[in-house]
Amino acid sequence: MKSKSIKIGIFIGLAVLMTVIVHLSLGGKNQNYDAFPTLDNDVTSMSMIMKSVQENGWSGIYFNPRIGAPDERSNMIDVPGVDSILAFEMLSINTLLRPSTPRLLYYVLIVTFITTAWTMAWLLFRMGFDMFQVFAGATLFSTAPFHFYRWLEHLAISNALTVPLVFLIAFYMIGFIKYESKKKMIAELTIAGLLIGLGCPYFLFFGMIVWVVAIICRCIRDMSVKAAVRKLWPMAAAVIGFIITRIPAFIFNLQNGKNTSVYLYTRSPAEQEMWGLKIIQLFVPVNYSRVPFLSNIAKAYNSTGYIINENISSGLGMVGCAGFIILCVCMMYSFIRKTDRSSENWTLIDFLSLTMITLLLTSAIGGFGEIFNYLVTPMIRCYNRSSVLISCMCIVVVVFFMDRLKKKNRDLSILCMIALLLFGLNDQVRLPYYDYRSTADTEQEKVYSEFFGKVQNMKDNDMIYQLPYYDYPEAGPYKPFIGYLYTDNIRWSFGGIAGRDTKAKELYIDNGMSTAFLDGIRKAGFKKMYIDTDFYTDGGNGIIGFYKNLGTDFVKSSDGKLYVFDI
Fold first, then answer.
1. What pLDDT, on the 0 to 100 scale, is given for residue 37?
2. Who has the most CB within 10 Å: 45, 158, 337, 536?
3. Same domain? 294 vs 363
4. In-domain check, residue 60
5. Domain-located, residue 475
6. Can you give the pTM of this predicted structure?
7. 8 A C-beta contact, residue 169 and residue 208
8. Judgement on whether residues 176 and 310 belong to the same structural domain of the protein
9. What 3-state class would DSSP assign to 37?
10. Within a domain: residue 433?
C-alpha cells in the first residue's frame, strides 16, 4: 500500500512539475493562453487540426468541411497530421474543458510533457530504481532538448510517451525486466505495444529496430531461437495498433482510389541524406543555453554547418551526452575485458551499447536507413528523429550508474543525482528572458482579430476564395489557414489536399486577375475574394489595383496586408 502511495505521489509530482516548467517556458504569467503563439510555420497547420477536431469531433482528424472549398471537404485522411494518441488527447481535453483553439494547443503541449514523464517513470520503476532516481530520470527525459525544439510546431514528435514503452518491451525481451504475474505481464506489455502502434509511426519504426536487436541478443545469449521467438508477441500488439490507425485511410482509398500526387507518396529515397542524423548534433549545446560560451558554440555550428534543418533538434543535452559517452566506454570495456555475459547488469549495458550503435548506423546521413529507403520504402525520411530514442537510452544509463553508486555510497549517490537533476534542468529547459510572445506578435494578433471580425460580419460570405493559390500540404506556406482559424461557418478555398481536392486549383487561372477567372469562381459559388499581399513580390500592388478597379466593396486589415473583396 505504501509503495502504491509513493508511486502515485511521484506521478502527481511529475505532472505538477511539468506543468510549471511548460508554463514558465511559455512566458509565465505574461502568457496569453487564448492567443496563437505564431501563425507563420507548422503551428498554423497544427492549430487547424485542433480547430477541426473541436468543430467535427474525431472525424475532424480526417476531414474538414470548412477548408478546400468548393469541394465538400478537405480529405486530410491522405496526410494525417496527428497520430491516434495525440488525437485522443485533443478530444479528451476539448471535451472536458471546452477551451479556445489556442488554449487547446497549449494544453496539449503540457500533456505531452506529463505523459512522456509518466511513461519514463513507469519504465524506471519496472527497472527497480528508487523513487528519487525515477523522479529525476523521468524529469530529465521529458525535459530533454527535443521537447523544447519540437515544442508546438511538431507536437507529434513532442508526444514521445511511447519511447520509454519501446524500451520496456525491449528489456523484457532480453530478460532484464521480469514479471511475477503472467497475467500482469501480458496485460501491461500488450497495452504498451498497442500504444506504440497507435502513436507516432517514427517511434514504432525505430522501436522495431530496437526490438530486432533485443531478439538477436536473446538468441545469441541463450543459443535458442525458439526462446527468443516466444518474446515477439508484444511486437505483434504494436503492429495491430498500427493497422488500427490505418483502417480509415485503407477504407477511404478503397472507395476513392489512392492519392499518388500528395508529397507523402512522392518522396525520394535520397531525402534520407537531407533529414538524417548527424552525430555532431547530438553533442552541440542547445542554442537557447543561458551560458554564453555554450550558446555561442551552438550558434557558430548552426550558422556554418551543412544540412541544417529539423535535425537541429537532435541534441541530447549535457546529461544525455554523458550517458552517450558512458555507453561508448562500456562497449569498449565489455569487448576488451570479455565481461561475464550472465550478469544482468552487463546484459543491459551491452544491449544499450549495441542498440545505440545500430540506431546511429541506421540513422546517420547515408547510413543503412538510406539503403532501406531504396530497397523497401522512402516513407521514413526524417531519421534524425531516432535521437529521441538515443536520448532515452542515455538517461537510463545515467540513472543506472547512479543506482550502482547508491549501493556503494547512498549519500553520495543522492547528492550526485540532485546535482545532475539541477544541472540538467538548467541546461535543457528553455526559459525566456522576456514574454514569450513579442510585441510584434501581440500587435499581429490584434490585427487578425479585428480584420476577420469584420469579414465574419460581411453578408453573403459562405465561401471565400484565397489568393494566391497554394497546394496543401508541404507545397507552400500554411499562413492561409488564418482565415479558417479566426472565423466560424465560413468556408475557405485553401487547405484542399493536393491530388484529391482539386477544384480550387482548377479554378485558378490568369493569376486570379481576369474576367474568366472571376466568372469561374462565381459559378463555383464564391462571392468573396481574400488576398494576402505578403505573398506578392510587388507587395500586392498589381492585384489589389485590379480588384479595386472592380468598384466593389472591400475590407482591409489595419496593417494594409490583408483584403477581402466582394466579387
1. 82
2. 158
3. yes
4. no
5. yes
6. 0.90
7. no
8. yes
9. coil
10. no
Residues 6+ apart with CB under 8 A from 295: 285, 286, 287, 288, 289
Give the DSSP per-residue string, 215-244.
HHHHHHHHT-HHHHHTT-HHHHHHHHHHHH
537 in the same domain as 406: no
Same domain, 382 and 453: no
Amino acid at 285: P
Residue 26 counted as domain residue = yes
For helices 410-428 and 387-408, angle between their N-to-C axes, nearest 10 degrees: 150
Q: Taken in order 36, 40, 46, 47, is the CA torsion positive or negative?
A: positive
pLDDT tier for residue 257 given thresholds of 50, 70 and 90: confident
Query: Looking at the structure, do residues 465 and 512 belong to the same domain, yes or no?
Result: yes
What DSSP character marks residue 286?
P
Domain end, chosen from 404, 428, 452, is at 428
473 φ/ψ angles, rounded to the nearest 5 degrees = -100, 175
Quote the pLDDT of residue 435: 47
The dihedral region occupied by 162, where left means phi > 0, alpha psi between -120 and 50, and beta the remainder, is alpha
Question: How would DSSP label each residue in 75-105?
Answer: EGGGS-SS-HHHHHHHHHHHHHH---HHHHH
What's the pLDDT at 433?
A: 52
Pick the last residue of a domain from 395, 428, 461. Answer: 428
Chain position carrying cell 500482469: 184
99-103, 253-257, 358-362, 392-396 — which is least confidently predicted? 253-257
| Count of the separate structural domains present in the chain | 2
Range of the domain at 248: 2-31+82-428
Residue matched to cell numbers 517514427: 202
d(C-alpha 545, C-alpha 531), whole Å = 12
Assign 167 a pLDDT band (cuts: 50, 70, 90): very high
CA dist 41 and 10 (Å) reads 36
Q: What is the Cα–Cα distance from 67 to 74, expressed in whole angstroms?
A: 6
Question: Half-sphere exposure (CA, 13 Å, Cβ side) for 387?
Answer: 34
Both 400 and 450 in one domain: the answer is no
Residues 393 and 459 in one domain: no
- 461 and 416 part of one domain: no
218-232, 311-325, 548-562 — which is least confidently predicted? 218-232
Q: How far apart are CA 323 and CA 452, in angstroms?
A: 51
Here the cell at position 485 is 482559424
Query: For 467, phi and psi rounded to 5 degrees?
Result: -120, 145
Instruction: Select the more confidently predicted residue: 135 or 344.
Output: 135
